[in-house]
């Protein structure tokens, strides 16, 4: 089995303000969040239409899409509020205390 491949990175300090961070990657933009000390990464583009979830509204581990208010649980990727119906792709993360590395 091959190791998870690193596809994006961002400085850990960028997450500390509580806002989502949009990071480009070879599989499309990824939104990275720091929630209660846990780093969570999902696809940035909403599964409903074309909106950046990094610009959404974060409450606990739920991100609300800025365009139509659909909501997703960042821990599972599940859509939890209409009009969002399809789950987000989730990504692995690790950090060395300076950078966050997003992996497949
Ligand atoms: S684009 Fe996200 S809920 Fe419509």
Automatic annotation (TrEMBL):
CDD domains: Rieske_RO_ferredoxin. InterPro entries: Rieske_2Fe-2S, Rieske_2Fe-2S_sf. Keywords: 2Fe-2S, Iron, Iron-sulfur, Metal-binding. The keyword Metal-binding applies. PROSITE patterns: RIESKE. This is Non-heme iron oxygenase ferredoxin subunit. SUPFAM superfamilies: ISP domain (SSF50022). Pfam families: Rieske. Residues 7-102 form the Rieske domain.
């Amino acid at each position: 089995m091959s190791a998870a491949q690193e596809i994006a990175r961002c400085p850990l300090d960028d997450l500390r303000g509580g806002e989502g961070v949009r990071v480009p990657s070879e599989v499309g933009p990824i939104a990275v969040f720091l929630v209660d000390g846990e780093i969570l990464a999902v696809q940035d583009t909403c599964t409903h239409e074309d909106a950046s979830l990094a610009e959404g509204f974060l409450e606990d581990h739920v991100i609300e899409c800025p365009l139509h208010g659909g909501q997703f649980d960042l821990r599972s990727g599940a859509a939890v509020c209409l009009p969002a119906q399809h789950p987000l792709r989730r990504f692995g993360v690790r950090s060395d205390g300076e950078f966050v590395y997003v992996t497949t």
